[in-house]
UniProtKB/TrEMBL annotation:
Its EC number is 3.2.1.4. This is cellulase. InterPro entries: 6-hairpin_glycosidase_sf (IPR008928), 6hp_glycosidase-like_sf (IPR012341), Glyco_hydro_9 (IPR001701). Keywords: Carbohydrate metabolism, Cellulose degradation, Glycosidase, Hydrolase, Polysaccharide degradation, Signal. Belongs to the glycosyl hydrolase 9 (cellulase E) family. One of its GO terms (biological process) is cellulose catabolic process. One of its GO terms (molecular function) is cellulase activity. Residues 1-18 form the signal peptide. Residues 21-44 are annotated as: Disordered. PANTHER family: ENDO-1,4-BETA-GLUCANASE.
Length: 440
């Protein structure tokens, strides 16, 4: 494990900037023994509001560190308060991974990026469900920890905790086994993918806190905070520069931190670079935005990512693989800001062709994925351990693309929305067992 330099030991972090006040009394999930109740055609639909509230409540359950006085989860305790002490830093806080007590930056950054992207597209859903303050709370708990994990421009902590030690422990959060070592990437031992993905998270959330949208039909959330946005901007830009200009060159982060390989090994870094550049293009304007867009196009083609969308080779969208999301996000940007792509050979039509070729292989069953007898989309090798993850991520991308009116035809729009709805229906109970399905 590499130790931080003495300069890093002196670093100070910005105070937490004001966030939205949480509802009082707080939202808590309804008792499960009550079952579901008809929504009675109410607006907003009470079932969807409950589902959204429950999803955000899950992140409260995953909190690490010193908990706030308004913590909603009665059984979650202050925990892992000494994280980072081995390197002279405060790395407490953030979220535990899955059912474990290790903290991993790479998948967390993907999660934060994805949630901010969704809020940019459909933020009014949070408003209607009275969950905007909880969205803000959830994001800041993760982003504030990422800020701690990035104590200098060319240093990013990518893991806190020992995976082997932690996986052998099945107890509560008051007796988490020690030691909890802190692992970093830096200028001489870089991790291109992890740095770029963290940049993408900061950039996507910067757009959210700057009241930007991805289409004229989207209404921004009431989360604008210029001071917080400025902090996110600084980290987004520094991390992208770190990812692209580290003196140690470009490499996957598990090369520098092999301890992360068992849980979250990365298969490459071109996709993280491309999606980070696209989100940075959204946060900027003029020449800077065009430069970021050109970077994204360069990473996309130099990494041969377009091949990952071709029938038979089509990849999933998840913490490791961002390629399908790159094409969708690029189409959104190209449609919303034609000036951004002026002078480029990679225009909206190029992205439409890539996205719809990918979607059509899935919908028509001509690619490597297939539907179970009950109708669930399966990607062999990817759905084995997380059965709903690939299916619902495809549904999310299809809904985002079609709802933004980016399709080349109305028939394609209807086709994608129908397929996405059937995947969502399956997850929520319209399946052979007639019960909602867990994520795994």
């Amino acid at each position: 494990m590499l130790l931080v330099s003495s300069l890093l030991l002196l670093v100070t972090f910005p105070t937490v900037l004001a966030q939205l006040p949480l509802p009082n009394p707080p939202y808590t999930p309804p008792p499960p023994d009550q079952g579901t109740h008809p929504s009675n055609a109410s607006t907003p639909n009470s079932q969807w509001s409950t589902l959204l509230g429950n999803l955000l409540y899950f992140y409260d359950e995953q909190r690490s560190g010193k908990l706030p006085s308004n913590e909603r989860v009665s059984w979650r305790n202050d925990s892992a308060l000494d994280d980072g002490s081995d390197v002279g830093l405060d790395l407490s806080g953030g979220y535990y991974d899955a059912g474990d007590y290790v903290k991993y930056t790479f998948p967390l950054s993907f999660t934060l990026m994805s949630i901010c992207w969704g809020a940019l597209d459909a933020g009014q859903g949070y408003e209607a469900a009275n969950q905007t303050a909880y969205l803000d709370d959830m994001l800041r708990w993760g982003l504030d920890w990422l800020i701690k994990a990035h104590p200098s421009p060319n240093t990013l902590f990518v893991q806190v905790g020992d995976g082997n030690l932690d996986n052998a422990y099945w107890g509560g959060d008051r007796s988490i086994p020690a030691p909890r070592p802190s692992y970093q990437i830096n200028n001489t031992s870089p991790g291109t993918d992890a740095a770029a993905q963290a940049s993408a998270a900061f950039a996507a959330c910067l757009s959210l806190y700057s009241n930007r949208t991805l289409s004229a039909s989207s209404s921004p959330l009431t989360m604008a905070n210029n001071s917080y946005a400025s902090t996110l901007r600084s980290h987004a830009r520094d991390l992208y520069t770190f990812a692209t200009n580290a003196t140690g060159g470009m490499q996957t982060y598990q090369t520098a931190v092999p301890q992360s390989a068992d849980a979250y090994a990365s298969s490459g870094y071109s996709d993280e670079l491309a999606i980070a550049a696209l989100f940075l293009a959204l946060t900027d304007s003029g020449v800077n935005a065009s430069t970021y867009y050109s970077d994204a196009v360069r990473w996309y083609f130099s990494g041969n990512l377009e091949q990952q969308l071709v029938a038979g080779d089509e990849t999933v969208f998840n913490w490791d693989s961002k390629t399908p999301g790159i094409a969708v996000l690029a189409a959104q940007l190209a449609a919303a800001n034609p000036d951004l792509v002026s002078g480029s050979n990679t225009t909206l039509k190029v992205w439409q062709s890539a996205v719809e070729g990918y979607f059509d292989a899935i919908v028509n069953g001509t690619g490597r994925s297939y539907l179970t007898q009950g109708g669930l989309l399966i990607f062999p090798g990817d759905s084995d351990e997380a059965s709903l993850n690939p299916a619902l991520n495809v549904a999310m991308l299809m809904t985002r693309y079609a709802s933004a009116n980016l399709t080349s035809s109305q028939a394609a729009q209807a086709r994608y929305l129908d397929f996405a709805q059937r995947q969502l229906d399956y997850a929520l109970g319209k399946n052979p067992m007639s019960v909602p399905r867990p994520r795994h």
